[in-house]
Amino acid sequence: MFRNLFNKSDTDIITIKTISGHQADWGGDGIVFYVKNGKGLLSAKYGYLENDALATLVYGNTPLIKFHGDGPYFCPTCEKLVAAGYGLNMGDQQVIAELRDVLNRKFVSLGESLESLKPLLGLLPTGYYALVDTELCPTNGNGEFFWKLNNKPTYNKASFPIYGGDGLWSAGIPYYILPTQPPSLYNPQQAEFYRKNDDYRAVAYHLEGYLCALLDGHHKAVAAALDKKKIKSLVIIPASSVWETNKKQNIKGGISINGIILNEDELITSVTDIMKLWKLNQLNKVETETYLSLINDDFDKNYEWSQEILEAETIFPDALTVARIQWAGDLSDKRLNGILRNEEPLSDKDGLNIATALYYSKSLRFKEMAFYFCRNYSFVLVWHKIYELLANIKDEEIEDFFVDYLIQGDKDHPEVKKIIDHYFSNERYDTKVN
After folding, report:
1. Pairing state of beta strands 176-179 and 211-216?
2. Residue 213, class by beta-carbon neighbours within 10 Å (0-12 exposed, 13-18 middle, 19+ buried)?
3. Whole-structure pTM over 0.85, yes or no?
4. Confidence of residue 2 (pLDDT cuts 50, 70, 90)
5. Under DSSP, is residue 8 helix (H, G, I), strand (E, B) or coil?
6. What are the residue boundaries of the structural domains of the chain, listed by start?
Protein backbone atom coordinates (compact mmCIF):
# COMPACT_ATOMS: atom_id res chain seq x y z
CA MET A 1 0.00 0.00 0.00
CA PHE A 2 3.00 2.30 0.45
CA ARG A 3 4.65 1.48 -2.87
CA ASN A 4 4.04 4.89 -4.41
CA LEU A 5 4.02 6.81 -1.14
CA PHE A 6 6.85 9.18 -2.04
CA ASN A 7 5.71 9.78 -5.62
CA LYS A 8 2.27 11.15 -4.84
CA SER A 9 2.05 14.81 -5.77
CA ASP A 10 -0.55 15.76 -3.14
CA THR A 11 1.97 15.68 -0.26
CA ASP A 12 4.23 18.72 -0.07
CA ILE A 13 6.74 20.21 2.36
CA ILE A 14 6.55 24.03 2.36
CA THR A 15 9.22 26.15 4.05
CA ILE A 16 7.78 28.92 6.25
CA LYS A 17 10.85 30.60 7.78
CA THR A 18 14.40 30.00 9.00
CA ILE A 19 15.19 30.50 12.68
CA SER A 20 18.74 31.09 13.92
CA GLY A 21 19.91 29.34 17.07
CA HIS A 22 19.97 32.48 19.22
CA GLN A 23 16.27 33.13 18.50
CA ALA A 24 15.00 29.86 19.97
CA ASP A 25 15.61 27.39 22.79
CA TRP A 26 16.29 24.67 20.26
CA GLY A 27 20.02 24.26 20.66
CA GLY A 28 20.69 25.11 17.01
CA ASP A 29 19.42 26.63 13.79
CA GLY A 30 16.05 25.50 12.53
CA ILE A 31 13.65 25.68 9.61
CA VAL A 32 9.91 25.98 10.23
CA PHE A 33 7.89 24.10 7.62
CA TYR A 34 4.35 23.03 6.81
CA VAL A 35 3.41 19.49 5.81
CA LYS A 36 0.59 19.68 3.29
CA ASN A 37 -1.57 16.56 3.02
CA GLY A 38 0.73 14.58 5.28
CA LYS A 39 0.30 10.81 5.35
CA GLY A 40 0.07 10.62 9.16
CA LEU A 41 2.08 7.40 9.19
CA LEU A 42 4.50 8.85 11.77
CA SER A 43 2.38 10.55 14.39
CA ALA A 44 2.04 11.41 18.10
CA LYS A 45 -1.15 9.90 19.56
CA TYR A 46 -2.95 10.34 22.89
CA GLY A 47 -5.37 8.05 24.66
CA TYR A 48 -7.15 7.87 28.01
CA LEU A 49 -8.46 5.03 30.14
CA GLU A 50 -10.13 5.15 33.53
CA ASN A 51 -6.87 4.79 35.47
CA ASP A 52 -4.23 5.33 32.82
CA ALA A 53 -3.25 7.72 30.08
CA LEU A 54 -0.99 7.16 27.11
CA ALA A 55 1.04 9.36 24.82
CA THR A 56 2.91 7.54 22.11
CA LEU A 57 4.79 8.17 18.91
CA VAL A 58 3.54 5.64 16.38
CA TYR A 59 4.78 4.40 13.04
CA GLY A 60 1.76 3.01 11.25
CA ASN A 61 0.17 0.95 14.02
CA THR A 62 3.42 0.40 15.90
CA PRO A 63 4.04 2.37 19.12
CA LEU A 64 7.67 3.54 19.23
CA ILE A 65 7.81 5.13 22.71
CA LYS A 66 5.22 5.06 25.50
CA PHE A 67 4.58 7.91 27.95
CA HIS A 68 2.22 6.84 30.73
CA GLY A 69 0.28 9.40 32.70
CA ASP A 70 0.14 8.77 36.44
CA GLY A 71 -3.63 8.58 36.60
CA PRO A 72 -6.51 9.24 34.20
CA TYR A 73 -5.07 12.42 32.73
CA PHE A 74 -1.76 14.04 31.83
CA CYS A 75 -0.35 16.79 33.98
CA PRO A 76 1.82 18.97 31.70
CA THR A 77 4.23 19.81 34.53
CA CYS A 78 4.53 16.35 36.11
CA GLU A 79 7.00 13.53 35.58
CA LYS A 80 5.81 10.91 33.11
CA LEU A 81 6.32 7.19 33.28
CA VAL A 82 8.38 6.30 30.19
CA ALA A 83 8.68 2.84 28.62
CA ALA A 84 9.88 1.28 25.40
CA GLY A 85 7.49 0.86 22.51
CA TYR A 86 7.04 -2.14 20.24
CA GLY A 87 10.02 -1.28 18.04
CA LEU A 88 10.44 0.44 14.69
CA ASN A 89 11.72 -2.87 13.34
CA MET A 90 8.26 -4.36 13.99
CA GLY A 91 6.55 -1.92 11.62
CA ASP A 92 6.17 -1.94 7.85
CA GLN A 93 9.68 -2.43 6.46
CA GLN A 94 8.92 -1.43 2.87
CA VAL A 95 8.70 2.27 3.72
CA ILE A 96 11.74 2.03 6.01
CA ALA A 97 13.71 0.40 3.20
CA GLU A 98 12.81 3.29 0.90
CA LEU A 99 13.90 5.76 3.57
CA ARG A 100 17.24 4.08 4.31
CA ASP A 101 19.14 5.96 1.62
CA VAL A 102 17.54 9.25 2.67
CA LEU A 103 18.52 8.81 6.32
CA ASN A 104 22.12 7.81 5.64
CA ARG A 105 23.29 10.71 3.53
CA LYS A 106 26.18 12.85 4.69
CA PHE A 107 25.22 16.20 6.17
CA VAL A 108 25.84 19.23 3.94
CA SER A 109 23.51 21.92 5.26
CA LEU A 110 20.21 22.27 7.09
CA GLY A 111 18.50 23.41 3.90
CA GLU A 112 19.72 20.39 1.94
CA SER A 113 18.71 18.11 4.80
CA LEU A 114 15.16 19.46 4.71
CA GLU A 115 15.05 18.75 0.99
CA SER A 116 16.48 15.24 1.26
CA LEU A 117 14.27 14.32 4.23
CA LYS A 118 11.03 15.24 2.47
CA PRO A 119 10.08 11.55 2.05
CA LEU A 120 10.30 11.12 5.81
CA LEU A 121 8.66 14.45 6.65
CA GLY A 122 5.80 13.57 4.33
CA LEU A 123 4.93 10.70 6.69
CA LEU A 124 3.97 13.23 9.38
CA PRO A 125 0.38 14.41 9.79
CA THR A 126 -0.60 17.65 8.08
CA GLY A 127 0.63 20.52 10.22
CA TYR A 128 3.49 22.79 11.27
CA TYR A 129 6.91 21.65 12.44
CA ALA A 130 10.53 22.69 12.72
CA LEU A 131 13.64 20.79 11.64
CA VAL A 132 16.55 21.69 13.91
CA ASP A 133 20.26 20.96 13.58
CA THR A 134 21.46 20.37 17.13
CA GLU A 135 23.30 17.92 19.38
CA LEU A 136 21.74 15.39 21.75
CA CYS A 137 23.15 13.44 24.69
CA PRO A 138 23.44 9.64 24.25
CA THR A 139 21.65 9.27 27.60
CA ASN A 140 17.95 8.90 28.43
CA GLY A 141 17.41 11.83 30.80
CA ASN A 142 17.52 9.59 33.87
CA GLY A 143 21.31 9.40 33.94
CA GLU A 144 21.45 6.15 31.98
CA PHE A 145 22.84 5.11 28.60
CA PHE A 146 19.98 5.69 26.17
CA TRP A 147 19.68 2.07 24.97
CA LYS A 148 18.86 0.78 28.46
CA LEU A 149 15.17 1.71 28.10
CA ASN A 150 12.91 -1.30 28.65
CA ASN A 151 9.23 -2.20 29.02
CA LYS A 152 8.94 -1.18 32.67
CA PRO A 153 7.30 2.25 32.95
CA THR A 154 9.79 4.38 34.90
CA TYR A 155 9.53 7.99 36.04
CA ASN A 156 11.80 10.17 33.94
CA LYS A 157 12.83 13.58 35.27
CA ALA A 158 13.48 14.82 31.74
CA SER A 159 9.88 14.23 30.64
CA PHE A 160 8.61 17.64 31.75
CA PRO A 161 9.83 21.21 32.36
CA ILE A 162 11.72 21.67 35.65
CA TYR A 163 10.32 23.93 38.37
CA GLY A 164 12.90 26.25 39.91
CA GLY A 165 10.70 27.94 42.52
CA ASP A 166 9.20 31.44 42.55
CA GLY A 167 7.15 30.69 39.43
CA LEU A 168 10.25 29.81 37.38
CA TRP A 169 10.03 26.93 34.90
CA SER A 170 12.65 25.66 32.51
CA ALA A 171 11.99 25.40 28.79
CA GLY A 172 11.81 21.83 27.54
CA ILE A 173 14.26 21.49 24.65
CA PRO A 174 15.57 18.54 22.61
CA TYR A 175 18.42 17.18 24.75
CA TYR A 176 18.19 13.43 25.45
CA ILE A 177 17.26 10.41 23.33
CA LEU A 178 15.14 7.30 23.70
CA PRO A 179 15.56 4.24 21.43
CA THR A 180 12.90 3.09 19.01
CA GLN A 181 14.66 -0.21 18.28
CA PRO A 182 15.78 -2.97 20.69
CA PRO A 183 19.49 -3.42 21.52
CA SER A 184 19.48 -6.85 19.91
CA LEU A 185 19.99 -4.97 16.61
CA TYR A 186 23.27 -3.43 17.79
CA ASN A 187 26.27 -3.98 15.50
CA PRO A 188 29.64 -2.92 17.01
CA GLN A 189 31.24 -2.61 13.57
CA GLN A 190 28.61 -0.09 12.51
CA ALA A 191 29.25 2.01 15.62
CA GLU A 192 33.00 1.98 14.87
CA PHE A 193 32.28 3.22 11.35
CA TYR A 194 30.51 6.29 12.73
CA ARG A 195 33.36 6.94 15.17
CA LYS A 196 35.60 7.44 12.14
CA ASN A 197 32.98 9.25 10.04
CA ASP A 198 31.05 11.89 11.99
CA ASP A 199 29.77 13.88 9.01
CA TYR A 200 26.35 12.25 9.40
CA ARG A 201 23.30 13.22 11.42
CA ALA A 202 20.96 11.12 13.52
CA VAL A 203 17.25 11.89 13.08
CA ALA A 204 14.96 12.30 16.10
CA TYR A 205 11.45 13.45 17.00
CA HIS A 206 10.96 15.76 20.01
CA LEU A 207 8.39 14.30 22.39
CA GLU A 208 8.00 16.12 25.72
CA GLY A 209 10.29 17.96 28.09
CA TYR A 210 13.87 17.21 27.05
CA LEU A 211 13.17 13.82 25.47
CA CYS A 212 13.41 12.80 21.82
CA ALA A 213 12.63 9.51 20.07
CA LEU A 214 15.60 8.40 17.98
CA LEU A 215 14.14 7.49 14.58
CA ASP A 216 17.51 6.79 12.98
CA GLY A 217 21.04 6.83 14.35
CA HIS A 218 21.24 4.29 17.16
CA HIS A 219 24.77 3.32 16.09
CA LYS A 220 25.70 6.99 15.66
CA ALA A 221 24.58 7.52 19.25
CA VAL A 222 26.69 4.60 20.48
CA ALA A 223 29.67 6.06 18.61
CA ALA A 224 29.08 9.38 20.39
CA ALA A 225 28.85 7.61 23.76
CA LEU A 226 32.16 5.85 23.12
CA ASP A 227 33.78 9.19 22.33
CA LYS A 228 32.08 10.90 25.32
CA LYS A 229 30.42 13.53 23.16
CA LYS A 230 26.95 14.52 22.00
CA ILE A 231 25.43 13.12 18.83
CA LYS A 232 24.89 15.50 15.91
CA SER A 233 21.19 15.30 15.14
CA LEU A 234 18.37 16.64 13.04
CA VAL A 235 15.33 16.94 15.31
CA ILE A 236 11.72 17.23 14.19
CA ILE A 237 9.80 19.49 16.58
CA PRO A 238 6.00 19.54 16.24
CA ALA A 239 3.78 22.51 17.06
CA SER A 240 3.11 22.42 20.79
CA SER A 241 0.12 24.74 21.19
CA VAL A 242 -2.49 26.61 19.18
CA TRP A 243 -4.90 29.44 20.06
CA GLU A 244 -7.67 31.37 18.35
CA THR A 245 -8.00 35.11 17.84
CA ASN A 246 -9.39 37.07 20.80
CA LYS A 247 -10.42 40.48 19.50
CA LYS A 248 -11.48 41.73 22.94
CA GLN A 249 -7.94 41.21 24.24
CA ASN A 250 -6.34 42.16 20.91
CA ILE A 251 -4.72 38.72 20.60
CA LYS A 252 -4.10 37.21 17.18
CA GLY A 253 -4.55 33.49 16.67
CA GLY A 254 -1.41 31.47 16.16
CA ILE A 255 0.72 28.49 17.09
CA SER A 256 3.87 27.83 19.09
CA ILE A 257 6.64 25.47 18.03
CA ASN A 258 8.61 25.02 21.24
CA GLY A 259 8.48 28.74 22.00
CA ILE A 260 8.68 30.10 18.44
CA ILE A 261 5.41 31.88 17.67
CA LEU A 262 3.75 31.97 14.27
CA ASN A 263 0.74 34.28 14.22
CA GLU A 264 -2.18 33.68 11.90
CA ASP A 265 -0.72 36.02 9.26
CA GLU A 266 2.25 33.65 8.83
CA LEU A 267 0.16 30.48 8.63
CA ILE A 268 -0.86 28.80 5.41
CA THR A 269 -4.01 27.40 7.01
CA SER A 270 -6.52 28.76 9.51
CA VAL A 271 -6.15 28.20 13.24
CA THR A 272 -9.56 26.51 13.21
CA ASP A 273 -8.32 23.94 10.69
CA ILE A 274 -5.26 23.23 12.84
CA MET A 275 -7.45 22.57 15.87
CA LYS A 276 -9.58 20.15 13.84
CA LEU A 277 -6.47 18.26 12.74
CA TRP A 278 -5.22 17.92 16.31
CA LYS A 279 -8.40 16.06 17.25
CA LEU A 280 -7.33 13.29 14.87
CA ASN A 281 -4.50 12.44 17.27
CA GLN A 282 -6.97 11.16 19.88
CA LEU A 283 -7.06 7.38 20.39
CA ASN A 284 -10.25 5.58 21.33
CA LYS A 285 -10.35 3.13 24.23
CA VAL A 286 -9.71 0.02 22.11
CA GLU A 287 -6.74 1.64 20.33
CA THR A 288 -5.29 2.80 23.64
CA GLU A 289 -5.57 -0.67 25.16
CA THR A 290 -4.03 -2.22 22.04
CA TYR A 291 -0.99 0.08 22.07
CA LEU A 292 -0.50 -0.48 25.80
CA SER A 293 -0.57 -4.26 25.26
CA LEU A 294 2.07 -4.29 22.51
CA ILE A 295 5.32 -5.30 24.25
CA ASN A 296 8.55 -6.36 22.57
CA ASP A 297 10.45 -8.70 24.90
CA ASP A 298 13.72 -7.84 23.15
CA PHE A 299 13.81 -4.59 25.14
CA ASP A 300 13.89 -6.56 28.41
CA LYS A 301 16.85 -8.78 27.57
CA ASN A 302 19.96 -7.94 29.58
CA TYR A 303 22.30 -6.70 26.89
CA GLU A 304 25.85 -6.43 28.22
CA TRP A 305 27.07 -2.97 27.27
CA SER A 306 30.79 -2.38 27.60
CA GLN A 307 32.06 -0.21 30.44
CA GLU A 308 33.52 2.12 27.82
CA ILE A 309 30.01 2.84 26.56
CA LEU A 310 28.43 3.08 30.02
CA GLU A 311 30.99 5.70 31.10
CA ALA A 312 28.90 8.16 29.09
CA GLU A 313 26.39 8.08 31.96
CA THR A 314 28.80 10.07 34.15
CA ILE A 315 29.68 12.66 31.50
CA PHE A 316 26.41 14.34 30.60
CA PRO A 317 24.26 16.56 32.87
CA ASP A 318 20.90 15.52 34.24
CA ALA A 319 17.68 17.41 33.52
CA LEU A 320 17.91 19.67 36.57
CA THR A 321 21.43 20.68 35.57
CA VAL A 322 20.23 21.48 32.05
CA ALA A 323 17.52 23.66 33.59
CA ARG A 324 20.15 25.46 35.69
CA ILE A 325 22.12 26.17 32.53
CA GLN A 326 19.00 27.74 31.00
CA TRP A 327 18.25 29.77 34.12
CA ALA A 328 21.80 31.15 34.25
CA GLY A 329 20.94 33.66 31.52
CA ASP A 330 23.52 36.02 30.05
CA LEU A 331 27.09 34.81 30.54
CA SER A 332 28.82 37.66 28.75
CA ASP A 333 32.04 39.12 30.14
CA LYS A 334 30.16 42.36 30.75
CA ARG A 335 27.67 40.68 33.07
CA LEU A 336 30.27 38.52 34.84
CA ASN A 337 32.48 41.54 35.46
CA GLY A 338 29.49 43.38 36.91
CA ILE A 339 28.82 40.47 39.27
CA LEU A 340 32.43 40.57 40.49
CA ARG A 341 31.98 44.29 41.19
CA ASN A 342 28.78 43.52 43.15
CA GLU A 343 26.71 45.54 40.67
CA GLU A 344 24.01 42.87 40.34
CA PRO A 345 22.11 41.36 43.28
CA LEU A 346 22.11 37.56 43.03
CA SER A 347 20.47 34.80 45.04
CA ASP A 348 22.39 31.69 46.00
CA LYS A 349 20.44 29.83 43.28
CA ASP A 350 21.58 32.42 40.72
CA GLY A 351 25.19 31.80 41.72
CA LEU A 352 24.81 28.05 41.38
CA ASN A 353 23.09 28.39 38.00
CA ILE A 354 25.84 30.63 36.65
CA ALA A 355 28.63 28.40 37.96
CA THR A 356 26.91 25.33 36.49
CA ALA A 357 26.46 26.95 33.07
CA LEU A 358 30.08 28.11 32.96
CA TYR A 359 31.32 24.66 33.96
CA TYR A 360 29.37 22.73 31.33
CA SER A 361 30.19 25.27 28.60
CA LYS A 362 33.88 24.83 29.52
CA SER A 363 34.18 28.57 29.97
CA LEU A 364 37.61 29.98 30.80
CA ARG A 365 35.89 32.07 33.46
CA PHE A 366 34.41 29.16 35.40
CA LYS A 367 37.14 28.96 38.06
CA GLU A 368 37.20 32.72 38.59
CA MET A 369 33.45 32.91 39.18
CA ALA A 370 33.36 29.70 41.23
CA PHE A 371 36.08 31.04 43.54
CA TYR A 372 34.12 34.28 43.91
CA PHE A 373 30.90 32.48 44.87
CA CYS A 374 32.71 30.14 47.28
CA ARG A 375 34.37 33.05 49.08
CA ASN A 376 31.10 34.95 49.45
CA TYR A 377 28.79 33.95 52.32
CA SER A 378 25.78 35.13 50.30
CA PHE A 379 26.13 31.83 48.45
CA VAL A 380 26.98 29.59 51.39
CA LEU A 381 23.92 27.36 50.89
CA VAL A 382 25.22 26.24 47.49
CA TRP A 383 28.94 26.13 48.26
CA HIS A 384 29.03 22.33 48.31
CA LYS A 385 27.43 22.16 44.85
CA ILE A 386 29.99 24.55 43.36
CA TYR A 387 32.82 22.70 45.13
CA GLU A 388 31.55 19.51 43.44
CA LEU A 389 32.07 21.16 40.07
CA LEU A 390 35.54 22.45 40.97
CA ALA A 391 36.51 18.99 42.18
CA ASN A 392 36.22 17.63 38.64
CA ILE A 393 39.11 19.75 37.42
CA LYS A 394 42.66 18.79 38.29
CA ASP A 395 44.95 21.81 38.27
CA GLU A 396 47.25 23.69 40.61
CA GLU A 397 45.00 26.72 41.04
CA ILE A 398 42.10 24.62 42.32
CA GLU A 399 44.42 22.58 44.54
CA ASP A 400 45.68 25.81 46.14
CA PHE A 401 42.09 27.02 46.61
CA PHE A 402 41.16 23.76 48.35
CA VAL A 403 44.29 23.82 50.54
CA ASP A 404 43.43 27.38 51.63
CA TYR A 405 40.00 26.16 52.70
CA LEU A 406 41.51 23.34 54.76
CA ILE A 407 44.00 25.72 56.40
CA GLN A 408 41.13 27.96 57.50
CA GLY A 409 39.76 24.96 59.41
CA ASP A 410 36.10 25.67 58.63
CA LYS A 411 34.16 23.10 60.68
CA ASP A 412 30.71 24.43 59.82
CA HIS A 413 30.57 22.79 56.38
CA PRO A 414 31.67 19.13 56.63
CA GLU A 415 30.16 18.40 53.21
CA VAL A 416 32.72 20.72 51.61
CA LYS A 417 35.61 19.05 53.44
CA LYS A 418 34.34 15.66 52.25
CA ILE A 419 34.45 16.87 48.64
CA ILE A 420 38.01 18.17 49.06
CA ASP A 421 39.08 14.87 50.67
CA HIS A 422 37.71 13.03 47.62
CA TYR A 423 39.63 15.39 45.40
CA PHE A 424 43.00 14.73 47.01
CA SER A 425 42.35 10.99 47.11
CA ASN A 426 42.22 11.14 43.28
CA GLU A 427 38.62 9.97 43.15
CA ARG A 428 36.56 11.60 40.40
CA TYR A 429 33.58 13.40 41.87
CA ASP A 430 30.06 13.10 40.44
CA THR A 431 29.49 16.14 38.22
CA LYS A 432 25.70 16.04 38.33
CA VAL A 433 24.40 19.04 40.22
CA ASN A 434 21.05 18.63 42.01
Report:
1. parallel
2. buried
3. yes
4. very low
5. coil
6. 5-314, 328-424
